[in-house]
Amino acid sequence: KKKVAVYSNDIDWDLCGQLIIASSNQTGNPVYRVKTPLAFDGYDIVIILGGHRAYTDKNMPKNIAGEYLDPEEMQMLESERDHKVLKIKRVGKQVFYVFAGSDRYDTKDILLDDNDGDGKANILEAVGGYDPEHVEGALYGKRVLFIISFKDFRDEELSIPSKILEDEDAEIEIASTKKGIARGMLGMSIAVDKTLDEVNVDEYDAIVFVGGSGTPTYLWGNELAANIAAEAFTKGKIVAAICLAPGVLAEAGILEGKRATSYITARDKLEAAGAIWVDQPVVQDGNIITARGPEAAQEFGEKIKEALISQG
Hints:
The protein is of the alpha/beta class. The protein has 2 domains: 4-128, Chitobiase, domain 2 (2-Layer Sandwich); 143-311, Class I glutamine amidotransferase (GATase) domain (Rossmann fold), CATH 3.40.50. The protein is built from 10 helices and 17 strands. The strands form 4 sheets. It has a 7-stranded mixed β-sheet, with helices on both faces. α7 packs across α8 (246-252).
């Protein structure tokens, strides 16, 4: 769940608070009213109510809306009646939403508006952590976990499929054997969100194992990785692996009688586990998707996307 901070004076809160609480109840993301910008750290989403001219009070001792609004936006709020602005800004992993109107009633109205025409109010999407001005992609609401070697994962096998899924609004997380900055074979670096022992398979729609020369060191023979694959398969999740990573699926015991592919040096490992090894770039057998190597990364990502869409 994502934690949501709301920064507002009492006037705007009295008008909008129930809408925000209702959105919290609907999305499951808890909302907290904070009284200083210094308290924003630790929250995933920050909602600021009122424009740059909104009154300050004990609950909003400093007006910071002007730090997020453009000069043109502030001028329009001052010069036009019934003008409304929704400003979205990402700072690191935090997302800031400024709801501002020419007056307090316009501020409330912009919460209720549906800027992207998807039938959901702006405030509901903001509390949910989505972009109220973005038309949702085909994978909106889907969560995908990529499991990588902490050192020497294959860059394209992570970057290409994850971009394909993110472009369709899937939420991506990265897991490895430890936290920190993982490094790819070709120089890519990425922050690890969680360790393998922190993974809850129920939170994801798909689990993707990335290959690379680090796979035998970090993922083969790793009981946690194999258990994640086995649990995901049993629960009907999409289980995908590329390059050397199908070896993890072999160790999980989920490839017996399944058509699968891999990098050539993992072929014996797959066949020993009962897989029917196929010399094709990408192979899908039920909820298992395997791919040969980095040259198949694009097709691999597209196949995972198709499978997620088919899930409904």
